[in-house]
């Protein structure tokens, strides 16, 4: 199903962060004026907002970004129900019970991800497969090599954000899953975190020095 121009623009802002009308026009293959018209309509609807930023001398440039209402256009597949269930679990089972649930989820997810890595060629291939898994789960994941043996995995959306806000052990568990599934030849560090106020979650993945460096090449977007 083809997305509307409005949805394409919102998706571009969600996946790329704040952009100028000219940058959005280039991404969507329309003129800057056309992008500006779309942005004006979305601003009236409360989905986007503008901020003027100065870059050295000269006039400031206007950047557009999603508002909270705009972010809400992207689904949270757990939402209120999961939050209510977590509250109930904490009441009935206590912190230890909730931690046991997180460990159970972690084990099941790790088993599924590990199976998906079967036959992988190298760390770059595993990062690519992990990004695919996460995208299919709604995280809008992407990755690229930033230098030989070093990759950046980004997740532009968190479909379990409401649950993770209530129970941050879920985020800790996901980082542990990434480290386990990418293998002992990878060092994984979370560099951006939505719950800490970033627009996305991002992970720096570096191969150990003794591992063969991967060829630098973009798969996805910076």
Describe the protein's architecture and organization.
The protein is globular and about 55 Å long. Helix content is about 50%, strand content about 20%. It has two domains: about 5-70, Winged helix-like DNA-binding domain superfamily/Winged helix DNA-binding domain (Arc Repressor Mutant, subunit A, Orthogonal Bundle), CATH 1.10.10; about 80-205, Muramoyl-pentapeptide Carboxypeptidase, domain 2. The protein is built from eight helices and six strands, in the order αααββαααββααββ. The chain has helices at about 5-15, 20-30, 30-45, 70, 80-115, 125-135, 160-165, 170-180, and strands spanning about 50-55, 60-65, 140-145, 150-155, 185-190, 200-205. It starts with a helix and ends in a 15-residue tail after the last strand. The longest helix is centred in the middle third of the chain and has 38 residues, at about 80-115. The strands form two sheets. Strands 3-4-6-5 form a four-stranded antiparallel β-sheet, with helices on one face. By secondary structure, it is of the alpha+beta class. The model is unreliable at about 210-220 (pLDDT under 50). Helix 5 (about 80-115) packs parallel to helix 8 (about 170-180).
